[in-house]
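Researcher: Next entry in the queue.
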Amino acid sequence: MRIRTALVAGLVALTALAGCAVGPAGQDSSKPTIRLAYQSFPSGDLIVKENRWLEEVLPDYNVQWTKFDSGADINTAFIAGELDFGAIGSSPVARGLSAPLSIPYEVAFVLDVAGDNEALVARNESGVTDVAGLRGKRIATAFASTAHYSLLAALNQAGLTAGDVQLIDLQPQASLAAWERGDVDAVYTWLPTLDELRKTGKTLIASRELATAGKPTLDLGVVSTAFATEHPEVVDVWRQQEARALGVIKDDPTAAAAAIAKQIGITPDEAANQLQQGVYLTPQELTSAEWLGTDGAPGNVAQNLHSAAQFLAEQGQIPAAPDLATFQKGLYTKGLPNVLQS
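Model: Structure for this entry, 342 residues:
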């Protein structure tokens, strides 16, 4: 308990320094505020934000969007009690639900399944042509992210350990700057930074290949347990709008790309290309046993998180993996599938 107390104190102190930018000011002080964390990877979350759907369907609330650079920073903000919802990768969620963090949040949505939108790229000048060739090389990734998890899995698959390379903790934009200076030989990261690296680098392995080999990664929507308990109707609305966005990605990819392009600051064509690199579920797939599951019957996302935690424990990233029940309890399936059909 003392470990977690000290950790929380340290993380709260660091929150002000975390990579984030606070949403617009001037909100109505007479209304309660819903606090959402988002990241700049292409997903339905950005469509919801761009179109102001939550503001439209929840007029009695202020909706505050805060941009974060990685899941580790989002975990920090949840521990500090500063968020209600967050868009975060499965590896940081597995870490967040494990000791010593044990963050009281639950997975309520699957934003996307990582495919070619997250990958390990080596600089052309490095001469590296495969993962095994990274021995002794400098590799940047955002620690405690899905990319970090996938990098460790890729090294393991190639017969290497973290000790065989020089790992450098850098957020996506910082890793791009280091790449351009020649300070790193390779980077494991995600879109949109990934596309910039590909211009002068070679893709060694993508998360799609690691998923096939049994190490899939997901981008998830999580909600604070306290918020979900107090405001289940708001969670329902949020899930419905996220499902609406998945429908746009499937049925009107041009509109989806246009919205995401505005949020990321790229062209619609670039956004369309990035969307094609991820895997986006339908509401029917989302509520199947393969993914989130249904009310009272948590799906395989729990097993995915458990497997991720076991791997993180093997790699010395967390002390130990909790049992499967911890992750099943960590899925918010209340009202599924009906809530997404209304």
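Model: The chain has two domains: 2-114+217-340, 118-212.
Researcher: Noted, moving on.
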